[in-house]
Each structure stands twice: as structure tokens, then as C-alpha cells.
């Protein structure tokens, strides 16, 4: 049906069900579709030439905007909490308070650095952040077909926006839910706006943004892209949901986590740094 689904990186728990969902979504047409995607390590690459690529937080951590002492502290936090984030032996209940602690401590350290809003452009430009291969086709196709793309990220909204603006794909059909920085009148970081979004509270974030989903009521078919089990809840605010196809990038600790991803995502992409499969699926659904 879609040749890319036979790639060696692709696994499916129930290929027949995937086929049924795809047929249903294609028959309903692109006017009924919305795409909801995570950002870090889903739209961005996990690794390039064997080296880890940065998340939104890492872009700041690696930049000249942060003192060496602060870099060490943020690195310690990463080394402590990232292994917990991806630990398949711990429950979400056990991880949740630890994730809140990680995000809260990291944001406090960033605020202490008195980061200037007008320096973010340069930090992104000088960073090693990379969108996945095929990103341009993904963003441009959704734009051409007027399909809304919601990027739902526990990263930093201001940095995320700059990454996609820098790549020339921040089209008007893109909306972002994320942690946005709060700058004072002089353009200096003084905190973060609204409720904290971390990887395990995207359900609450989705429900809080009811107005967005109300506007998209007629788009009852959802293509969801994520890289963590927390991303599975990103579509919880969608109204009149009829079909949802969940694609999960499995980037790290692949053998330990394969079964839980197979149980929860419809399609999993193991160590696949491309947008080939989402792009092929979008072309199919939109009848191109
Ligand atoms: N201080 C931090 C906190 C989180 N991260 C990573 O960011 C990712 C969250 O962003 P999504 O777009 O994937 O929702 C998450 O996977 C954390 O590993 C970080 O790098 N530093």
C-alpha cells in the first residue's frame, strides 16, 4: 500500500489495523485531517554521524549565553534525569515528580543566566540542531494542503520557533504548545509563562487548550508523531475524534523499550532519522 512501510526500521503490531485506519483517513480526505507532533527527537534528529543532536534545552545549554558553571550544573541534571526519563523499568508515577524536578531546576538555572531575547536567534544559528531528513517536504506539504500542524513540546517554545523559522518552514498552519519564556521590558529572561509542560503532562496541556481543538472540530482524523510514551496523550483534547494513527520514533534503548512502543504506537520507527514514513503516509492520506 505504501512502500515506505516495508523499510527495515518500521515495525507494526497490527498491520491490518494500520491499513484500515489509512484507508478510512484517505477516504475522508485532507479537509478532515490534523497533524499533532512532538518536537525534540521527533521532528528533530536524535543523532548525526554517531553524535547526539541537541534538544531545545540543549541548544541554550551549549550556547555562549550560559556560563561554564551553569553548563556544568545543567549537564549534571541531564546525566541524572535523562536516564530516568527513558528507564523502562520505572513507572510513569515514579518518574513524574522527578521530571518536574528536572524541568523546574533547569528553568531556574536558565533564568539566573539573564538570557536576552535578542540573543536566541544567534544561539539557534550556531547550534547543532537538525530537523529530520525530509522535514521540508513534511512542513511544505501540510502547508500546501492547508492541514493544521500542532507542535506540542515540553521543550522551549521560543527556541523551537526559532529552529523552524531558521529552517524556513514556520508556515501559518503551524501552531506551537510549549514552555514559553517570559522576558521583562528590557528583553531579559525573568521566568516561564503558564503551566509547566513536561513529557508526562501533555494530556493536561491538551485539555487546557480546548479553544484550539474547538476550532478544528471538523478535523476528526489525526496523525500523531511522538518519541516518548508521554506523547501518546497529545491528542486527548481533539473533539469528535474518529481515526488516529500514532507513529513513534524509537531512538534510544531500542531493545528495552521496543515492546512498550509496539503495544502503544501503531507504527514504530527504530533508529530512523528521516521523515520518509510520515511523508509517504501524508501523501497517501491526502491523495497525492
Ligand atoms: N532540562 C531539560 C529538560 C528536558 N530535556 C529534553 O527535552 C525533551 C522534551 O521535549 P519534547 O519536544 O520531546 O516534548 C525531553 O525528551 C527531554 O529529554 C532536556 O534536554 N533538558
Layout: helices, strands, pairs:
Layout: E1 10-12, H1 15-28, E2 33-37, E3 47-48, E4 51-52, H2 56-61, H3 68-85, H4 92-112, H5 120-125, H6 135-144, E5 149-156, H7 157-166, E6 174-179, E7 181-183, E8 189-192, H8 202-208, H9 210-215, E9 221-226, E10 243-250, H10 254-264, E11 267-270, H11 276-285
Parallel strand pairs: 2-5, 2-9, 5-6, 9-10, 10-11
Antiparallel strand pairs: 1-11, 3-4, 7-8
Helix pairs in contact: 3-4, 6-11
Question: How would you describe this protein?
Answer:
- With 288 residues, the protein is of the alpha/beta class.
- The protein has 2 domains: 3-47 and 131-285, 3-Layer(aba) Sandwich (Rossmann fold), CATH 3.40.50.1000; 49-125, Pyrimidine 5'-nucleotidase (UMPH-1), N-terminal domain (DNA polymerase, domain 1), CATH 1.10.150.
- It contains 11 helices and 11 strands.
- It has helices at 15-28, 56-61, 68-85, 92-112, 120-125, 135-144, 157-166, 202-208, 210-215, 254-264, 276-285; strands spanning 10-12, 33-37, 47-48, 51-52, 149-156, 174-179, 181-183, 189-192, 221-226, 243-250, 267-270.
- The strands form 3 sheets. Strands 1-11-10-9-2-5-6 form a 7-stranded mixed β-sheet, with helices on both faces.
- Helix 3 (68-85) packs antiparallel against helix 4.
- The longest helix has 21 residues, at 92-112.
- It starts with 9 loop residues before the first strand and ends with a helix.
- The model has no long low-confidence stretch (mean pLDDT 97).
- The structure holds ligand L45E5XJ5.
- GO terms for molecular function: 5'-nucleotidase activity; magnesium ion binding; nucleotide binding.
- It is found in: Cytoplasm.
- Monomer.
- InterPro entries: HAD-like_sf, HAD_sf, Pyrimidine_nucleotidase_eu.
- Belongs to the pyrimidine 5'-nucleotidase family.
Amino acid at each position: 500500500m505504501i512502500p515506505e512501510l516495508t523499510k527495515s526500521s518500521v515495525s507494526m503490531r497490527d498491520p491490518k489495523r494500520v491499513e484500515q485506519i489509512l484507508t478510512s483517513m484517505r477516504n475522508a480526505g485532507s479537509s478532515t485531517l490534523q497533524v499533532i507532533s512532538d518536537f525534540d527527537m521527533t521532528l528533530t534528529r536524535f543523532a548525526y554521524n554517531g553524535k547526539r543532536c541537541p534538544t531545545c534545552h540543549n541548544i541554550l545549554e551549549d550556547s555562549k549565553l550560559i556560563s561554564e558553571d551553569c553548563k556544568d550544573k545543567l549537564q549534571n541534571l541531564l546525566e541524572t534525569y535523562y536516564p530516568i526519563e527513558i528507564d523502562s523499568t520505572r513507572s510513569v508515577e515514579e518518574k513524574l515528580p522527578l521530571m518536574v524536578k528536572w524541568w523546574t531546576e533547569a528553568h531556574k538555572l536558565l533564568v539566573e543566566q539573564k538570557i536576552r531575547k535578542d540573543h536566541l536567534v544567534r544561539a539557534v544559528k550556531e547550534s547543532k540542531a537538525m530537523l529530520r531528513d525530509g522535514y521540508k517536504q513534511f512542513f511544505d506539504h501540510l502547508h500546501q494542503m492547508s492541514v493544521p500542524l500542532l507542535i506540542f513540546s515540553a521543550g522551549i517554545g521560543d527556541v523551537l520557533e526559532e529552529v523552524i523559522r531558521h529552517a524556513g518552514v514556520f508556515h501559518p498552519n503551524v501552531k506551537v504548545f510549549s514552555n514559553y519564556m517570559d522576558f521583562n521590558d528590557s528583553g531579559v529572561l525573568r521566568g516561564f509563562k503558564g503551566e509547566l509542560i513536561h513529557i508526562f503532562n501533555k494530556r493536561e496541556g491538551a485539555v487546557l487548550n480546548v479553544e484550539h481543538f474547538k476550532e478544528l472540530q471538523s478535523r476528526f482524523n489525526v496523525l500523531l508523531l511522538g518519541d516518548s510514551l508521554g506523547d501518546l496523550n497529545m491528542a486527548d483534547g481533539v473533539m469528535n475524534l474518529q481515526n488516529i494513527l500514532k507513529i513513534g520514533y524509537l531512538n534510544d534503548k531500542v531493545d528495552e523499550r521496543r515492546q512498550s512502543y509496539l503495544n502503544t504506537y501503531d507504527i514504530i520507527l527504530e533508529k530512523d532519522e528521516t521523515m520518509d514514513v510520515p511523508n509517504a503516509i501524508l501523501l497517501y492520506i491526502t491523495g497525492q
